[in-house]
TrEMBL record:
Domain of life of the source: Bacteria
Pfam families: Phe_tRNA-synt_N, tRNA-synt_2d
Cellular component GO terms held in the UniProt record: cytoplasm
Domain Aminoacyl-transfer RNA synthetases class-II family profile: 117-335
Species name: Roseivirga misakiensis
Subunit and interaction comment: Tetramer of two alpha and two beta subunits.
Name of the molecule in the record: Phenylalanine--tRNA ligase alpha subunit
Amino acid sequence: MADQFKSISEEINSFKVSNADDLESYRLRFIGRKNIIGDLFSQMRDVPNDQKKAFGQKVNELKNLAQSKFQELIESLNSDNVRDESHADLTLPSAKSSFGSIHPLTATRQRFIQIFERIGFNVSSGPEIEDDWHNFTALNFPENHPAREMQDTFFIEKDPDIALRTHTSSVQIRVLENEEPPIRTLSPGRVFRNEAISARAHCVFHQMEGLYVDKGVSFSDLKQTLYHFAKEMFSKKTQIRFRPSYFPFTEPSAEIDISCQICHGEGCNICKYTGWVEIGGAGMVDPNVLENCNIDSSIYSGFAFGMGIERITMLRYGVKDLRLFTENDVRFLKQFNSL
Ligand code: DAH
């Protein structure tokens, strides 16, 4: 009998498992319903009375041994599966994780705002779905005037007209209606036009609107402000020029060109060999616009400008096709990882 106890305890002590099947064999043999230790219990009735107690104790010891060994085996299996931290080589390079980056259009918008905040501009916004008043009428587009067709509009409703805004100039009206001069504000936002998508045009794009209204604001303020902007946004050497133009909401109006950032005036296909590239429109706020917003045009004057954020970003980074900005091709976006 003593031999039997000894051999079972030796068997338990030396039992090794290398997988779940081994563990299960252990369980069946020493713990399960018909286990070998249980068999010993059933031999109890054949044990002489004076030895029963000692026998029972021995069987219980074996049972406890089998249980604690079982826990040990479970733990040894688990720790083999989980990498042992104490053996990790901390000098190995870590697994590479990749991060997203700032989108180039966002980077340009942020830089734009930074430049203008330093000269006292704040940021304002308006809705992308606009009524006729804010997108056209208050901006001095006469009823049925061909100027309304300058910007092919996505209408949502007709009479009264509700449309996706065709430019951020609509935010000028919202600010002028709600604030007192002096006003210096920048309005970035998404705009929509019914245009065929190409390398240079899109039906959804972004603009940055600027507005400055105060006593005595003049065209030279406009020119100097945009000159400062061009040098900050591009480079110190950047030149700026104004070409006479027409917008219903400004008088006089101008188109703004900067010296080509690619060829620096030598001539290349980006500037179409002129040395100049257009970045937007500008002008002195038409007195009618101020009056439409209940601002006395005999006291106040102002300038405004509007630029395409895609356009500026293309010039800043030498991007030749604006469709790249919205295609979400990581090979393109990764090139801006350092922004
Ligand atoms: N709203 C014009 C456009 O979308 C751009 C523009 C031109 C805005 C002149 C202005 C401005 O504020 O003064 O083409």
